[in-house]
Design brief:
heterodimer; A: 120 residues; mainly beta; 7-stranded mixed sheet; 4-stranded antiparallel sheet; 0% helix; 52% strand; globular; B: 105 residues
Chain lengths: 120, 105
């Protein structure tokens, strides 16, 4: 069974950084791209970017290029997202989601979400 | 590509046939999926490539469409279908619609 287990809630000060993890199990981690999706309170879903764990290659939505950094540790089958220069706009739940790959390229398995609260 | 979902809120009764709409700002070439998100949960994939039912999803869910216009249909609404539904295109970039919140009367 494919499972994505995310780290717990984070509280960050304005201007600081937080790092969220997503540990994958039940499949070969390097065979699938991992996406990250943001959901602000009461709002819809926004794609942040993806990482290919095998090669470390990444792609980001324009809006998040200076905000998010995606990394992956193949030895522990864990993907990470780091959010920098936190503001109140970054208060949200962040999901990791596996990409199904060819030929459909949809997000077919999701983590449970990790909440980030930016507060002084 | 921007996605516009309608209606934003839909109230229906158990047993009703329900239709949700998603319109793209450009041709999506059938690279359109639907997700269901229940309160406090992660989204769940229902439909991919316009009309392919994800494994384990009840057959009362179906998708259709082409070009810029797509539809998710629930043939007979169940109480557990209370959720927000998002369309998602992966033809040109990756974009979610703004969602349709489905309420049970």
């Amino acid at each position: 069974e494919v499972q994505l287990q995310q780290s717990g809630p984070e509280v960050g000060r304005p201007g600081s950084s937080v790092k969220i993890s997503c540990k994958a199990s039940g499949y070969t981690f390097t065979d699938y791209v991992m996406n990250w999706v943001k959901q602000s309170p009461g709002q819809g879903l926004e794609w942040i970017g993806w990482i290919d764990p095998e090669y470390g290659s990444t792609d980001y939505a324009e809006k998040f290029k200076k905000k998010a950094t995606l990394t992956a540790d193949t030895s522990s089958s864990t993907a990470y997202i780091q959010l920098s220069s936190l503001t109140s706009e970054d208060t949200a739940t962040y999901f990791c989601a596996r990409d199904s790959g060819s030929p459909y390229y949809v997000m077919d398995a999701w983590g449970q979400g990790a909440s980030v609260t930016v507060s002084s | 590509i921007q996605l516009t979902q309608s209606p934003s809120l839909l109230s229906a009764s158990v047993g009703d046939r329900v239709t949700l709409s998603c319109k793209g700002s450009q041709n999506i070439n059938n690279y359109l999926a639907w997700y269901q998100q229940k309160l406090g949960e992660a989204p769940k994939l229902l439909i991919y490539k316009t009309n392919s039912l994800q494994t384990g999803i009840p057959s009362r869910f179906s998708g259709s469409g082409s070009g810029t216009d797509y539809t998710l249909t629930i043939s007979s609404l169940h109480s557990e279908d209370l959720a927000t539904y998002y369309c998602y295109q992966y033809n040109n970039g990756l974009t979610f619609g703004s969602g349709t919140k489905l309420e049970i009367k």
